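User: For a reading group we're discussing how well predicted structures match intuition. Take Peptidase M13 family protein. Before you show the prediction, I'll give you the sequence so everyone sees exactly what went in.
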Amino acid sequence: MSPAMVNAYYNPTNNKIVFPAGILQAPFYSSKQSSSSNYGGIGAVIAHEISHAFDNNGANFDEVGNMVN
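Assistant: Thanks. Here is the predicted 3D structure of Peptidase M13 family protein, as structure tokens, for the group to look at:
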């Protein structure tokens, strides 16, 4: 994935969130927004991606990315 891509995602095989630099733009981050808005915007993206580890797909992988179900 290109660093300019505006799309974070959860990779269950590696048990990682991929968070490219391109996500650091409005509405998730902007130098014109307050720090609290920036933390909230990025935090919401991170929380959303973490939730995929526990959804119907992510729950099928163990802590090292092996499919268990």
